[in-house]
Design a protein that fits this description.
- The protein has two domains: about 1-35, no CATH class; about 35-119, Glutaredoxin (3-Layer(aba) Sandwich), CATH 3.40.30.
- About 45% of the residues lie in helices and about 20% in strands.
- The chain has helices at about 5-10, 20-35, 50, 60-70, 105-119, and strands at about 40-45, 70-75, 85-90, 95-100.
- Strands 2-1-3-4 form a four-stranded mixed β-sheet.
- The longest helix is centred in the last third of the chain and has 15 residues, at about 105-119.
- The protein is globular and about 40 Å long.
- The protein binds FE2/S2 (inorganic) cluster.
Length: about 120
């Protein structure tokens, strides 16, 4: 059964999933999240995408991905929208969320942290 908070979260984002569908949806989301050894997840939902002040075009992200040596993926809302823009880094089974990553300098600092964590 969906928790009340999770049901509210889904409802606010106009997502509907039945109790019967939920386990499969969560399995699919987990498999996607854990794909590959290392990944950086860039929230591309509102309000995050409006507060980003660095180039997050597909071509720039592909270049950054090659340079940093990890997959960079855009995602939907990651939850803490009040601290937008949000990025999440997964190195193996370790996770770190970064808040208020707005400027080019912030973005480069996160990429350096990712590179450093993989070293
Ligand atoms: S919109 Fe980015 S964390 Fe919610």
């Amino acid at each position: 059964m969906l928790s009340l908070n999770f049901a509210i979260f889904l409802n606010l984002r106009r997502l509907s999933v039945s109790d019967a569908e939920l386990p499969g949806v969560l399995r699919q989301a987990r498999a996607e999240y854990l794909a590959g050894d290392n990944r950086l997840y860039l929230c591309a939902a509102q309000p995050c995408c409006d507060q980003v002040r660095f180039d997050n075009s597909e071509i720039t992200l592909e270049t950054a991905s090659r340079e940093a040596g990890l997959t960079i993926s855009k995602t939907g809302c990651q939850g803490p929208c009040k601290q937008a823009p949000i990025l999440s880094l997964r190195i193996g089974e370790r996770n770190q969320m970064f808040a208020e990553v707005a400027t080019e300098k912030d973005w480069r600092a996160v990429l350096f942290a990712a590179w450093d964590a993989m070293s």
